[in-house]
């Protein structure tokens, strides 16, 4: 047992065993498993939550199908849920036994106690948000992971400041005020040196989101608009054009069809006058490469030869373009003037100050109706419904919204 962790007396209302979903090997379905022990080791910042509704994420089928992100076998997956607090370790916690609707975001995929595919889940209290009564449990189960990814992408990678949005975080400043040695080593450089003060995204700047139908894009667009960024969304307009064009919260400043990537790049360059500096890709390496090309101004030709920047442009302050890849980045190294970013998700669960700041802000945003949860396209039932739902996602049947499972 690790230092600072003690054996928790399980309340009489909580059974000693539970039903979970176990993955025994890659490329297999998850197996409903009974008589699995309820997590009982916890520290004084952790709580126990009884699962009510699970949100399904693409990683839950991609990890077993492509054999990555599986730190041990058998494995319990699941990254977010809504449930009821049934145990708290600390009397001073802002969460209390009986809190009926809390959002649990489990970004720490190596800790199986925190995985969503089980009846009882351990959660760090600084990774839990109270769900306001006007938001249903079903919708609440669809927002947590996307919100964290969106906030860190914009706030850490691109440097956007949310301070004027109901007391939101200035993540650029927050991570730099933290003891560097307490930041995870593999994301430390992203947190401390990924973007300079001079480069930070500010009101009026353009940000392009390629893969705008993704749940993460949903929250990226909403948060970007709250800080005054101009948003370009690149999507399959045949599937999502009308919905996004008419959507109050998700309507971008410029909607671009992804059908012909080269044409999409031309449209983006033309409408931003070649000044686009920020891009976020939600789909993968190929589309991230397209977005990279959109970030690079088209060279002008003089006598058949590409010219460098004009003399007037050379007088301007040096700023870089920034590309965030949520699921992959271009294979080649970034060209001069472009910085690649990966989202430092770890700081949400490894740095309590960051995690708590984000969940408290999420509570205020939802309470005041400043953001909306992604649309829930369908609801499956029971642990058996998880595999059914993931199969539907594999087949591409779920697009532009989320699938959740009521336990």
Automatic annotation (TrEMBL):
Keywords: Oxidoreductase. Monomer. Residues 44-132 form the Alcohol dehydrogenase-like N-terminal domain. The keyword Oxidoreductase applies. SUPFAM superfamilies: GroES-like (SSF50129), NAD(P)-binding Rossmann-fold domains (SSF51735). The lineage of its organism: Eukaryota, Fungi, Dikarya, Ascomycota, Pezizomycotina. It comes from Lepidopterella palustris CBS 459.81. Gene3D superfamilies: Medium-chain alcohol dehydrogenases, catalytic domain (3.90.180.10), NAD(P)-binding Rossmann-like Domain (3.40.50.720). Belongs to the zinc-containing alcohol dehydrogenase family. This is Quinone oxidoreductase. It holds the Pfam family ADH_N. InterPro entries: ADH-like_N, GroES-like_sf, Lipid_raft_assoc_Zn_ADH, NAD(P)-bd_dom_sf, Trans-enoyl_RdTase-like. One of its GO terms (molecular function) is oxidoreductase activity, acting on NAD(P)H.
